[in-house]
Amino acid sequence: MGAQESLPGHGSIPEMHHYYSKFMRECPSGQLSLHEFKKLLGLQGLDPQGDLYIKRVFDIFDLNQDGFIDFLEFIAAINLVIRGKIDQKLKWYFKLYDADGNGCIDKKELLSIFTAIQAINGHTDMTAEEFTSMVFQKIDVNNDGELTLEEFINGVERDEDLMELITKSFDLSNVLKVIQTGRRNSI
């Protein structure tokens, strides 16, 4: 697969250039390690839950699973977050929740990732337990205590409140703002 295929509708050349020069400035090797990723985002010294979440985000951005995010993976990730269609984003969220990678999300997985997200974002109207119960109550159609990708996407797409909540809670644009503007000087 050519690099282009993984970057649907990529941005203008100057915009790409901006990200490229930023990426190379922050990461001269062209390979961003997990440690550098955290440093770039100013997210060192998180609690274990927050750390876990950032590692999951990193692992999902690391498409070829080599332990580094290279420039193409970086751009693909930015592209998804800024321009991704809603079902692409939902697939991404699903991957984020499905900690053991078995193709289903159970309550424990959802609870742990939501707790981790709260640790980073810090703003929320409900506890992680309430959030988890609500999600399962609304979209676990067959009540088996697990959500498949299909149940998850269909359920969230059908329910505007849930869609808004999930999009807001897991909004990575904060992360991207940091990448764009750089938080180096404020650390």
Automatic annotation (TrEMBL):
EF-hand domain boundaries: 49-84, 85-120, 127-162
PROSITE patterns: EF_HAND_1, EF_HAND_2
InterPro entries: EF-hand-dom_pair, EF_Hand_1_Ca_BS, EF_hand_dom, Recoverin
Keyword Metal-binding among record annotations: yes
SUPFAM superfamilies: EF-hand
SMART domains hit by this protein: EFh (SM00054)
CDD domains xref list: EFh
A cellular component term, taken from the record's GO annotations: photoreceptor outer segment
Gene Ontology molecular function terms on file: calcium ion binding; calcium sensitive guanylate cyclase activator activity
Keywords: Calcium, Lipoprotein, Metal-binding, Myristate, Repeat
Protein name in UniProt: GUC1C protein
Organism, as annotated: Zapornia atra (Henderson crake)
